[in-house]
Amino acid sequence: MREFTDQELIRRDKAVKLQEMGIDPFGNKFDRTAYNKEIKDKYKDIEHDEFENINDEFVVAGRIMFIRKMGKASFFSIQDKTDKMQIYISINDVGEEVYNLFKSADIGDIVGVRGRVMKTKTGEITLKCLEYTHLVKALRPLPEKFHGLTDIEERYRRRYVDLIMNNDSKRVAFLRPKIIRCIQNFMDGRGFVEVETPVLTTLLTGASARPFVTHHNTQDLDMYLRIALELPLKRLLVGGMEAVYEIGRVFRNEGMDPKHNPEFTLMEAYLAYSNLEGMMEMTESMYKTIAKEVFGKYTFNWYGNEIDLSKDFKRISMVDAIKEVTGIDFSKEISVNDALKLASEHDIVVEEHQKNVGHIINLFFEKYVEETLIQPTFLYGHPVEISPLTKKNPKDPRFVDRFELFIGGKEFANAYTELNDPIDQLDRFKNQLNERELGNDEANDIDMDFIEALEYGMPPAGGIGYGIDRLCMLFTETESIRDVILFPTMKNRN
Question: What topology is assigned to 6-142 in CATH?
Answer without folding.
Answer: OB fold (Dihydrolipoamide Acetyltransferase, E2P) (2.40.50)
